[in-house]
Design a protein that fits this description.
Oligomer: single chain
Strand content: under 5%
Shape: elongated
Distance between the termini: 15 Å
Number of strands: 0
Radius of gyration: 14 Å
Largest sheet: none
Mean pLDDT: 94
Length: 116
């Protein structure tokens, strides 16, 4: 199997995680164990599930983890919407991070389609 480092979706997911970590630094301190923690974990889950799935022996197993990664990405998108509604981020920040999440989502979709 191909090394996960060569997957474009992995590279873009890594960039996405770093953006999320930078973004949540803007959140109120009292959200450290709430939305900040949830967003960090969900973003890292996207990346980690791509890697974990890549290490599995079958395409069926790989697909399972790609679907989990996609679910975690959807969770991030939900949290971004909530952060916008709560005033933790500005619309411009939301638009940027949401677009980055959609880019990762598109790449996940393409990889899922290719593995199927």
């Amino acid at each position: 199997m191909q090394d996960y480092h060569n997957l474009l979706v992995w590279k873009k997911s890594l960039e996405f995680v770093k953006l999320v970590y930078r973004l949540v630094k803007l959140f109120p301190v009292d959200e450290i164990y709430g939305l900040v923690s949830q967003l960090r974990r969900a973003a890292v889950s996207v990346l980690a599930n791509i890697v974990e799935g890549r290490g599995k022996p079958t395409d069926k197993d790989f697909l399972k983890f790609l679907y989990i990664a996609n679910g975690s990405l959807n969770e991030c998108q939900c949290h971004f919407e909530l952060a916008l509604e709560l005033g933790y981020i500005k619309k411009k920040q939301f638009d940027y991070i949401y677009a980055k999440s959609k880019e990762v989502g598109f790449l996940l979709f393409k990889l899922i389609s290719a593995v199927k």
